[in-house]
Each structure stands twice: as C-alpha cells, then as structure tokens.
Amino acid sequence: MSGPARVERFPDSEADDDVVLRARGIEKQYGSSCGDCVELTGDDAGTNQCPTCGTIVAVADADLELHRGEVLGIVGESGSGKSSLAEILALELEATAGTVDYAGFEGNLLEADYQQRHRLRHEEIGLVHQHIRNGLTLSFTGGGNVAEKLLAAGWRHYGDVRERLTELFEATEVPVDRMDDPTSTYSGGMQRRVQIAKAIANGPGLIVLDEPTTGLDVSVQARVLDMFREIQREEDVSTIVVSHDLGVIRLLADRTLVMRHGRIVESGLTDRILEDPHHEYTQTLINSIL
Amino acid sequence: MTTTHHPETAQLSIDSLSKRFEMHVLSNTTVVGLEDVSATIRDGEFLAVVGESGSGKSSLLKCLYRSYEPTAGAVRYATDDGDVVDLASCSERTILALREGEIGYVSQFLEEIPRVSALDIVSRPLREAGVSDDEARDRARELLAALELPPELWKAYPATFSGGERQRVNLAKALATEPSLLLLDEPTSALDPETRAAAVDLLRSSLADGTTMVGVFHNPDVVATLADRVLVLDDGSVVDTVDVDAYLEGVR
Q1: Which of A12, A215, A282, B130 is the residue whose CA sits 20 to 30 A from A288?
Q2: pLDDT above 90 coverage of chain B, percent
Q3: Are B125 and B177 within 8 A, CB to CB?
Q4: ipTM greater than 0.85, yes or no?
Q5: Which Gene3D superfamilies does the protein's record reference (chain B) (predicted)?
Q6: What parts of chain A have a pLDDT lower than 70?
Q7: Is any Cβ of chain A less than 8 angstroms from the Cβ of B133?
C-alpha cells in the first residue's frame, strides 16, 4: 500500500471518473413475492412487509453514488435495510434486483461470477462485520487472521507477509508483539482493529464498515474511529459506514443516506442532515438524540 | 493556495437568499429563517452580521456553508481557480471540495472526535491537504501560541477544556489552512478580554493576507476592530447594510 497520490478535486468537476461506485435500483426481498410487494411497502406504506403475501422488502429502489476517497454514511433504525444494502454492495448478500457499476469492473458487479466475487472480496472490497465472530476466526492468531487475506490475494513469501502484517498492525495500533497470540485473547477494541487491518490488507478500493462501534467500550470507540479516519484519509479509500448511531456518522461521514422501511428517504451532506433535516423521519431521529 | 487579491471584485454575492424550515414534528409548521437576503462581500473584506438573537445571523452563515440548504436564492462565490460557483445549488461534492480547500467555518462550539489532542485537531486539516507532519504541527503550535493556549494543553484532549480553551482550538484549526473565505459564528464568545484581543489580532492578520470574512460577533469592540461593513438583520430580513463607522455611531 504505497500511499496513492491524493486525487485532485476541482470545485466544479462533476466528472464521472471520480465515481467509484454507482448503484441503481438495488432491491432485496425475502419471501415468495406476489409482484406488488415493492408498491405496497416502503415509507408511505409505513412497513417493509407486503400486506398481501408477507414478503419482506428489506431494500428497494435504492440508488447511490460513491466518489473516490469519500465516506458515505447510511443511518437508520434496525430493520431499515441499511445493513442489507451495505452487505449487497460488499458482495456478501445476493440482491433480488439492481445494478452496480464499479470502477475497473466490466458489467454489473452484482452479476459477478463465483471466481470474480472471490477475487473482489479479497482484493477490492473490505468488509468490517458488525459481529466480530463473523469477521475473524478467534482461535487463529491475530496475524493469522490477517495473513489469510494476504494469502488469498496471492502473497506467498513468508518474509513479505510478516513484514506486511507488522505494517498493518502498526497502522491499526495493535501491539505487534501480540501478533502470534490467539485472537480470542485480544480485547474487543483490539479485535476490531484486527478486523480493520484485515479489511485494508490488500489496499481495497472500497471499505464497508457495519456498525463499527458495536461491542466496544465507549472509551475505546473514539480511538478506533479516529484510527480508521486517519487510515481512510491516508489511503484515500472510498468507504460506506453503516450505523444507527448518529455520533459515528457525524464523526466519519461526508455525506449521509437516511433509510426507513427499506427505502432511502433522505440524503445530503452529513452536517446538513443533522442540522437541517427535511424528512419527517429524519427530524424525529435528530430530535431523539440523547 | 494562490489567492490573487482584487479589492474591488466580489468574493461573495448573496442574491435573494431565503430559508424556510418545514417542521414535521410540529404538525407541519413552517418557520422562516431568512427572507430575501441580499449582500455583496468584496474580496478581502470583513462583513459583520448583527441583529437580535433569532434574527437569522447563524442561519445566514449556515446557508453559506450549506449546513442549511437554502430554500430560494443564489450565493455566487468566486473560487481560487477563478470560477464562480452558486453555493446555494452546487453539488455536495463541490461543497465538500471547497470546504477542504478554501471555505472555513468556525462556530462557538468545538466538535471533534474525542481523545484526539489539540495539536492533532489543529494540524489535521493541513496534513490532509498534503503538508508534512512536522510542518503541520509547527504551524499548529504557532497558532495555538498566538492564541495563548498554554503549551501544557497542546497534547491534551479538548473534552476537558474550558469553553474559551476549546474556542481557541477551534479558531486555530480554521486558520491553519488559510481559507479564502472564513465564516465566523461568535468564535470568541467565551474568551476573556485579553485572549479575545489575541484572537482578533490573528483574524486581522489573516484579513491582511487576503481572507474574506463574514462574521457574527456579539462584542461591538470586535466589530469595530475587524469589520469594514455591517449587515443588520431583523426577523430574517436585511434592515440595512452600512459602513462600520456609521453603524458604530448608531450603537453609541
């Protein structure tokens, strides 16, 4: 990861080459689907469950763009569809419909075949799972967890791998001398850092962070977010951060999408969303901050 | 960042700017923040915005920074590259790029990631703009010293700072990148007279370097020292735009 040069951003360049990811009409349904499910659900209907056939419309009509080096926040309550949307973009979940253009990939990313998916998930898209157990094998060493990702991307030389691991542990502020201890012996904060080290290991073009502060003590949350922000800026890596916590979104995201009942109900600059919320739901959300 | 100084050209031209808030939680009440506000700010000028609380001073600054989305009107801004951009309607990407490179905003309150030191907060925008770590920290130390923040606090976390100490960090952070346009919303409200004087000196030298400023200051002495002209707001509308001397005569 030899610090890619920062992309020059000119004030009125709306050039498409700045777009890393463009998603259109992303949809995910769970159920038999009667054909009217999307119409009968959503923000206006006040539910994500089809009243006719009971199908759950986790996400529908979701459009978004992500630019190079940008951090896009997705906020909403549980069941709003935010994690489903993020998992689809991270190729962890199959969509029912939709297209995703991804810089450097020919065709619809969502239709990538098994081999392409495998490669993309190891080299191009880093996902930091909400639940640490889904992202790490706790019986392996911390170094082993991260090395797994390097080996999948074709790293073979032992010395190179060790060197890279040291670099990644230092960047994510995990004590290098704990590298060969089982991950189960790490604190929650360290486990989250190892997950981040794993996600950035192969210099991905996209990182998806799902509820990055889940399970962390308040005192550790801020350090982890700050560490991530430093790395994100340094690598200029495009990021999607999913959280129900507006504090996390405020600290990390440049722009934010608000989701409810499986739909994006509002989007804008993060400070605009927080200070001048337009949608009824966003206003309620902002007014509910403790 | 190269800024050519043209005293007679408009850095910012506000044209019939309005902001209304639709409050869904209050059974769809509409609250008027700004109504048909127009003003021109010349390159390198300081425009003070005054008015009672609730008159729309902060709303105006937030509309210029796009923390509020204007309901109607235009804000033509001359960029460092020589383009003119309508801040009221340009893309979010454009706003983000301008915020990173040339438009700064300082509020009364410091909002930062907890457990990041004052020195890192102030030097970060410079580091992100590509300045080396050492150089960025040197510049941050210079600014914090000029604002008389005790050196023993430089490596501490601002969460435990007093309001005045936090405001100094906030101001130093905004000045570090030498923005072309600086929006100031009572950035010295919690400072004692001596520290306030230091802050005003720093703002004055930044003005001399060509930064254009739009500022809300409660203290008339600060307005007298910094402002070229004064925009008087009442109930979201412009009552008057006058030279600072005429304004001060009216106040005294």
Answers
A1: A215
A2: 83
A3: yes
A4: yes
A5: P-loop containing nucleotide triphosphate hydrolases
A6: 1-17, 290
A7: no
